[in-house]
Specification:
Elements: H1 6-16, E1 18-19, H2 21-27, E2 29-30, E3 36-37, E4 40-44, E5 48-52, E6 64-68, H3 69-87, H4 93-100, H5 111-121, H6 133-146, H7 148-171, E7 174-181, E8 184-191, E9 194-196, H8 198-206, H9 214-229
Antiparallel strand pairs: 1-4, 2-3, 4-5, 5-6, 7-8, 8-9
Helix pairs in contact: 4-8, 5-7, 6-7, 6-9, 7-8, 7-9, 8-9
Length: 230
């Protein structure tokens, strides 16, 4: 996506832009320093939106990006998610998973059950979940259609269970509960003295602006592990 220069932004606003007051208000933010960031949102033709960086800002004032309606609404949902996570101290994968998890440390005893539920909720055939990287593409596509808010509420543990099982079989590891301190228990895949984090994979993908890609992030987790413990 190419950022528009200030003159390009102004030309668009003058030719077809209509200030969207509700969305503009949504993106206003006051920092701890007292500085108020005030980007502007304009509605364009053909279901498009123009995001304009605060014209009085310091870095890139008055420049902007054009988004399709779908992408713009996705960015709004992502922004609200980030705000909610920050307000509720869910700033890392462990705290985020603990907040939404229904099973907590018992997840490692329910892996098969959780994976079976995943096939039902996402309408996936049992034989499609063969614990391959390719199967993660299927889960990613179905999860994308399901919606990340519902994924967090309904299927967080199920995704961790399946991603973890894909990782476990690839590295020939074991499910192990790690406890950093009392009340902070979470599932990991352990190989000798090394640890892989399936909750990192799911957390990263639920927090993306882009489409969910569990295959890529699972491969990244295994690659990071290999670099640390090779």
């Amino acid at each position: 996506m190419k950022r528009l220069k200030r003159n390009q932004v102004q030309e668009l606003i003058e030719s077809e832009g209509r200030l969207h007051e509700e969305f503009t208000k949504f993106f206003e933010e006051t920092y701890s320093t007292g500085y108020k960031n005030q980007p502007q949102i304009y509605e364009l033709s053909n279901d498009r939106f123009l995001f304009v960086f605060d014209p009085k800002g310091f870095l890139i004032p008055g420049t902007g990006y054009i988004y399709s309606k779908e992408d713009f609404l996705r960015m709004m949902r992502w922004t609200q998610k980030v705000r909610d996570d920050y307000a509720n101290n869910r700033g890392n994968s462990v705290s985020h998973w603990i907040y939404f998890s229904k099973n907590k440390a018992q997840l490692v005893n329910k892996v098969d059950e959780l994976i079976n539920e995943l096939t039902i909720y996402l309408d996936i055939l049992d034989e499609e979940l063969d614990y391959s990287y390719k199967s993660l593409d299927i889960v990613s596509s179905k999860a994308e259609s399901y919606g990340f808010e519902k994924l967090q509420a309904d299927l967080y543990d199920n995704l961790v269970a399946y991603v973890g099982e894909v990782i476990r079989r690839r590295v020939k590891g074991d499910w192990v509960i790690r406890e950093d301190y009392p009340g902070c228990e979470y599932p990991t895949i352990q190989v000798n003295n090394g640890v892989l984090m399936p909750i990192n994979v799911v957390w990263q993908e639920l927090g993306r602006l882009e489409q969910i890609n569990l295959r890529q992030e699972a491969a990244n987790e295994i690659r990071r592990f290999s670099l640390r413990y090779r």
